[in-house]
Amino acid sequence: MKLALCGVHGSGKTTLLNTIQELNLLPGYYYSTNLTRRLRDQGYLISDKGDDATQNAIMSVHRANMAYTDIIMDRSALDCYVYTEYLYRQDKVSGLTSQKLFSQAMDCVNRYNIMFYIKPEFELEDDGVRPIDQKFQNDIVETFDRIITLCRLRVTLLTGTVDQRIEQFKQTLGI
Question: Domains of the chain, with CATH numbers?
Answer without folding.
Answer: 2-173 (3.40.50.300)
